[in-house]
Design goal:
The structure holds 2 protein chains of 2 kinds. Chain A is about 60% helix and about 10% strand. Chain A is α/β, with parallel strands linked by helices. In chain A, strands 3-2-1-4-5-6 form a 6-stranded parallel beta sheet, with helices on both faces. The chains are: A alpha/beta, B mainly alpha. Chains A and B meet through α2, α3, β3, α4 and α5 of A and α4, α8, α10 and α13 of B.
Chain lengths: ~240, ~450
Amino acid sequence: LSAKRGRQLFIRRIPGLSAIDEAVGRATEMGRPMLFSTGLGGLGIVSLQALSILSHIIRIAARYRARIIVPTADSVLYTIAEETTRDAYEAEGAGEAYNRDDVRYLTDNQFAYASGVVGIQHRERIASAFYFGSFFAESLILAENGQQVGAIQVAGTPQITQIPFFIAACDYTIIGDEYYAASAYLSREPTLLGSLVGQDIGKALILASIIIGIIGTSLTVAFTQPAWVESTILSFTNAFRS
Amino acid sequence: MVGSLTNSLTNGTLLAFFMPREGAALWIFILGSIFIGFLFLFLLTQVPAKFRKPIIIGVTFVSGWFYFLEFMIPRSNETMPLRRQLIAAEQAVWKAQTSLHRAIAISKERGSNNPAVAERIERAQGYAGSAVPQIGRAIEAVKEPLSRANTKVRDAELARGRLGAVSNDLPRDKLWSIEVADGRLVRAGDKYARLERAEAGLQSALEAARDAESILAAGAEADVALAAAKLGKADSGLRLAQSATEENFLTRYKEPVFQVSLVIGAFALGLGVFGLASMHAKTVLRRRPGWLNSLAFWIAMVVMLLAGLIKKYGVPAASGVRLSTGVYDTLFYGALAALGATMFSLVAFYIVSAAYRAFRMRTTESALMMLAAFLVMLSLVPVGVWLTGGLPAAGFWSAFRLENIGDWIMKFPNTAAQRGMAFGIGVGMLAMAIRIWLSLERGSYFDKQV
């Protein structure tokens, strides 16, 4: 509500999201396509967030008439990605630049999908690659091949186990909950910014409860269990008494 | 509204639409359903964007409410007394388990003769002792709903019995009535079986809690590990009973709602394959660069499709083994699985090249990362253990042995960082889910506030 009333809310800079413009600009200058992979996840919170970012990237790309290829591994997601892409092109008045074949359903098989995406990366000689969504063992295959073709790469996933691979192989990586801050960060809509602040308040509350829990448990353990604590307290008490 | 829909369903008026059909009527029904399905999809694609988005928002909102209410609405009143007893019994068992775990920890730290161990065991015995009558009361509480469910099963059996045996000579409406009665009997039977499972879980929990109490009665001499195992069994029994009573009036619709999403997914799969096939067909027909790859796609798709269909519907050979099974297995396990394994094995090489780039010390962060990785890797190989093998195995200096350093890095800084991220991701996901539910999210569909 305070964001809607015009209060300026501060969001720290997220380099990965700020690099999106640079990646699109590079592809435009080089005249080569970009690639946006939504990973293996089906329709869910993670994938919908990926589509929000895709929509933003396509809008920038559409302004420069840059081409973006979107291979998907889930058929339901494919239909939504197709519509999202078309809508984003039309919203920028570049409906004629939209190519239906650039949004593709490849397969739901993990490594068949990986090989399909790698094939696109090499054949199309992509200039920029974006990996947003749920990734598993194929994450490093995609990112390393993108690196081999010289693409600028931006990745983001809430999968904790895959983040190290993206950090090692990509130019920019969005870590942890930064992933869910993307739509607020990119759109700067007051409602979304407010929800981001709400998120942070939630995290602060969790942190406070963790700290209270740690103190409570530590005190319980310290004053009831270990003999050395008890003997230390006793020796201090005796020292003061004497 | 839900009530009237439920009545329509149980009275058979709505279900009559799905009455079994045969012959020409069956074919008309199938073709009609396909036609209506495609007509619905066609009309949906023709809806202007300004109306389509409110439809999506509405469906999202209603679906969200359905799952929210299913989760939040209290379970049926019938099993409320039972659930109260279950919660009380679970708390007592949990307290007994916690006391025992603490006794085990103290015993390891200060020896089993420590008075604190005996005190914890005594406490655990008290909690296990209080759990026993609570579980007994829960067993009493399950008897009444069980008896009611039994009566319902008998009524349903009698109603079904009055309708007689199924025969081809019976008129269709009579057959349909039999099907509806069968459905009622199955539902009543399901409920009875669920409550029976709850009772069985409670009986097992009661027995285990009694055993734990008698084991713990030996005081400091008690077999603590065995008592903990018995309490674990009691906990499992209580959980089984609880899961058997977790149902409200919306729960039964979860499965049909899931089926609807599966049907939508099946349509989408068709669209996905059609899109891919048409793209490759265009590439082949127009001889675009790389058209041979597209041709390979078409050949692979057609051959695999035929192999799958022949495997499913092919005629068995004289030996009883389908010849087509061999073709399918060769293609699936010999080609597809092998290609997948090849792709996966590439990860090993990519890890090396990615690690090489990541570990170049260009910044303080990468230097720290390299140092941590170096220590962890060294702690996991024999030479690392050998390097600091001269340090004592216990005491202050043991902390500087490489295997202990590696273990500490993995257990403390690494776990702490991962848990911190997991908390952030969890809160972020919750916020995102609420934004989608209330259509506040932008991007995929909602480019501006609706």
